[in-house]
Amino acid sequence: MSWMVPLPVVIPLLAAGLSLAFGRRPKTQQWIAIGALSISLAIAVVLFVAVDDGPITANVGGWIPPIGIVLVIDRLSALMLAVSVAVTLVVLIYSTAQGVADKGEGAPVSVFYPTFLVLSAGVSNAFISGDLFNLYVGFEILLASSFVLITLGGTRERIRAGTIYVVVSLLSSIIFLTALALIYGATGTINMAQLSLRLADVDPGVQMVLHVMLLIAFGIKAAIFPLSAWLPDSYPTAPAPVTAVFAGLLTKVGVYAIIRTETLLFPGGEFSSVLAWVAMATMIIGILGAVAQDDLKRMLSFTLLSHIGFMVWGVAVSTAAGLSAAIFYVAHHITAQTALFLVAGLIEARTGTTSLRRLGSLAKIAPVAAILFFISAMNLSGIPPMTGFLGKAGLISASAAKGDGLSWMLIAGGLITSLLTLYAMVKAWNMAFWMGTEGEKPLLSEKVPRRMTAGAASLVALSLAMAAGAGPLMAYTDRAAYDLRAQRYVTVVLPNGDQVGDIYFDPWSDSEEGSDG
User: Fold this and answer.
1) DSSP states of 114-157 as a string?
2) How far is residue 350's CA from residue 448's CA, in Å, rounded to a whole number?
3) Which helix (H) or strand (E) segment is 505 a member of?
4) What is the C-alpha separation between 179 and 193, in angstroms, rounded?
5) Which of the 8 DSSP states describes residue 35?
């Protein structure tokens, strides 16, 4: 089964090269891209089922870790991989109907599909990486492909947004790369399993510096407060499919990196209090920004920022229940937020605008879009029995079980954020689909292609299916949280142990447990 582990990365990269060779045949490029991601999704689903019996590793080039690069699939990475590839495939199909690659303000035909495939490969590489440098490579693949996608069409707004995005991402990459150099200098390795053993022998002051640098680098990627000012101006200017896949996936790679490093490399919960305050600020400030917006895309960008705070909340609780709820919430948010951006794309394709002041009474002419937006909005707001409610209920339960002051503060912040999210979503739905327009009415185009509506509907259906199967899914995330224990991860990646350190810290207990590896 280990031979399947690299395929979600290899197949899109090979398909990107093949697609580029057919630059003058956009239909051929479309089928190559759809075929590659369909195969990747099938493999991701197989791995998702297979890892329930235990994590799977693959040694790149046959080199035994920690000398070589190791790819690791456990329950967390398998869930992230399956959901991300499914969403990427849906967005790709949606984009073929919208025509972003061939008539979107001069967007180059020969670039879109190869770049989109490279983006998918970068996301998958980040999720299955077993060492920090390969994780860095995944981030850089994302950066390069994201810049191309965010500037499609070459308009002034998109170039400006892309420049901001690249500058901020490069800053994050520099911090991450510097941290890698310091980590290697302090421990002699960047293999995450080996680092979980060796970091215990590093001076506490040095540990703190390394920890802070990684949190800053990943915090910028995840867009947590106060490192999130770049996002609202970057995402809304891109084409709808690009904005959707960015909102659904790119910030989640940063969240994934935080979860992985906080549980594996720094499992003592040293910065749990800091993360709690960061989660609180991210939730509240993000949703206040959303409430103030009168453009649908910008409002959704701020809700994206706000709900990153819920994921950090689960990490801050630093218990198995909190991590399980955070993982569940990540999966929920990928589908719900992407669906909302796709529906925003439907509205833009129909009316040519996403300004809530110019929209109105769309429920009469676009009832399907109205229903899809309403379902996704209620899901994001946390209305029962949808996945948003279940994820938030899990976070509240984990915090209440912990019972300290910061945990109750997070509960209060989460409830306030949920109410304000509901207010923002109802306001947006009312202005776009129910009320009349305040200003000049937009010029309505012909009906949008059915594949666009089908793409948005399929993600809404996926989120409803996740709610229907929430019991087994939450049980899976519980087991995924169990997989995050350092001892379990290390024994899979380094079955022969490590010669430098043999102490495992178990965040689910109050003591350290010795092991011979």
Assistant:
1) HHHHHHHHHHHHHHHB-BHHHHHHHHHHHHHHHHHHHTTT--HH
2) 6
3) strand 503-505
4) 17
5) H
Domain ranges of the chain: 2-496
Q: If we measure between CA atoms, which residue out of 342, 361, 367 comes closest to residue 460? A: 342
Burial of 509 (0-12, 13-18, 19+ CB in 10 A): exposed
* Rounded CA separation 297/359 (Å): 13
DSSP 452-501: HHHHHHHHHHHHHHHHHTHHHHHHHHHHHHHHTSHHHHHHHH-TT--SS-
d(CA 502, CA 515): 6
CB 8 within 8 A of CB 42: no
Place of tokens 């012909």: 446
In whole angstroms, how far apart are CA 38 and each of 41, 45, 82, 329?
A: 5, 11, 11, 25
DSSP letters along 276-345, please? Answer: HHHHHHHHHHHHHHHHT--BHHHHHHHHHHHHHHHHHHHHHH-SHHHHHHHHHHHHHHHHHHHHHHHHHH
Q: Which residues pair with 131 in a beta bridge?
A: 191
pLDDT (mean) for 355-360: 82
Pick the closest to residue 493 from 4, 131, 211 (CA basis). Answer: 131
Cα angle at 317 between 313 and 321, to 5 degrees?
Answer: 100
Query: pTM for this structure?
Result: 0.90
- For the stretch 150-199, pLDDT in tens is 887 667 777 887 788 888 888 999 999 999 999 999 998 898 988 888 88
Q: How far apart are alpha carbons 185 and 117 in whole angstroms? A: 35
> What average pLDDT does range 9-32 have in this prediction?
90
Residue 157, CA distances (Å) to 150, 239, 331, 429 in order:
10, 12, 31, 26
Considering only residues 191 and 516, tell me which one the structure prediction assigns the higher pLDDT: 191
Please give the DSSP secondary-structure letter assigned to residue 444: P
Residue 503 bridge partners (DSSP): 514
Report the alpha-carbon distance of residue 474 to residue 421 in Å, rounded.
Answer: 24
488-498 pLDDT, tens per residue?
A: 788 888 876 55
Q: In whole angstroms, give the CA distance from residue 420 to residue 458.
A: 27
Structure tokens at 81: 């991989």
Yes or no: say if 115 and 123 are a contact pair by the CB < 8 Å rule: no
pLDDT in tens, 108-122: 557 889 999 999 999
Spell out the alpha helix ranges (H) of 188-271.
192-198, 204-222, 231-234, 240-245, 251-264
Structure tokens at 435: 């009320």
